[in-house]
Amino acid sequence: MLRVGIAGLGFMGMIHYLSYQKVRGVKVAAICEQTRKRLTGDWRDIKGNFGPTGTRMDLSGIATYDNLDAMLDDPKIDMVDVTLPPAMHADIVCKALRKGKHVFCEKPMALKLTDCRRMVAAAQKANRQLMVGHVLPLLPEYAWARKVIDTGRYGKLLGGSFRRVISDPAWLRHYWNADVIGGPMLDLHIHDAHFIRLLFDMPTAVSTTGRTRGKLAEYWTTQFRFKRNFAVTATSGTINQQGRSFDHGFEIHLEKATLLFQFTVIGDQAKYLCPPTILDDRGKAKTAKMPEGDPMMNAFHAELKAVVQAVSTGKKNNVLGADLARDAIAICQAQTKSLRQGKMVSLK
Ligand SMILES: NC(=O)c1ccc[n+]([C@@H]2O[C@H](COP(=O)([O-])OP(=O)(O)OC[C@H]3O[C@@H](n4cnc5c(N)ncnc54)[C@H](O)[C@@H]3O)[C@@H](O)[C@H]2O)c1
Fold first, then answer.
1. What is the pTM of this model?
2. Are 85 and 180 within 8 A, CB to CB?
3. Residues 3-24: tens digit of each pLDDT
4. Atom 24 in ligand 1: residue holding the nearest Cα
């Protein structure tokens, strides 16, 4: 039985806690949170942009801490699940690894590439697994696209365009602070940077144009260059108006098929602007059937199942591995640099 300590019981801490309840071979053995009432099981003020809202929880049998170091010293914990704000990820992950714990950390891995490198080195030195919560490849539409590509039935990948745009999340206090969250590049687009890295390997250069807010990218389009002849672009960022809180999608080109998908939330209406659809080379447009149930909660369940399996078997999970998560940060960092400097930026 893998025993997990959750560090930071906010929105994601709660989603992870609920998801672990459905995974075999794991037990949430400890929770560390600075908001004391949550340690008594009062989660009623927790709310995010998907999934259930918090209720009163029975935490009997779970060790509770309001100090992170104290939880890391708990010898009964095998893995630390870090759901703290991004600026705290690097230090706490390295500390947990030094204490001999495996670590699963929410995205973004860290705010800076140098921190990501430090985290990967700490995992290697400690001989422990470090995984990062890049859940997008496990969302039904993205998992469908990967599956179609991996069959090889439609030939080689040629490229794609990816989109992720939200209304300005004005209610998130530190969203536009480069030292706390890092704006839409690290909070939002990081998902597509990771997905692009997963599908096409590491870009050799990026060229980004768009607008900034202070030092941060606000809304932009990037062209990605690769050693191979791929044509890949992404558009991400925020718009100033409320009313369309979320919009994401892709168009992925293969030799013998094109994969289409766009989902949006306008007002309080969530809908497909284009359901997952495959255009094949016989001129047919076929809509793919997605699995039943809440797609987000299903994706987190799949994610944590994969994390528990990786640690329990010692077999690393490539999709959730720290190397890809670090590369995603490198890509985002290069995109921001390209946008600020107005020129193409190479990635080594
Ligand atoms: N994968 C996804 O789709 C997704 C969605 C939302 C958030 N996230 C990521 O999850 C992470 C957390 O985001 P969130 O929305 O849950 O934030 P949150 O603010 O709701 O939760 C963070 C929690 O950490 C606690 N905390 C902060 N400092 C602490 C300390 N020193 N000791 C103990 N507790 C402390 C806070 O009190 C808070 O409850 C971020 O990295 C975010 O990017 C991922």
1. 0.97
2. yes
3. 999 999 999 999 999 999 999 9
4. 8
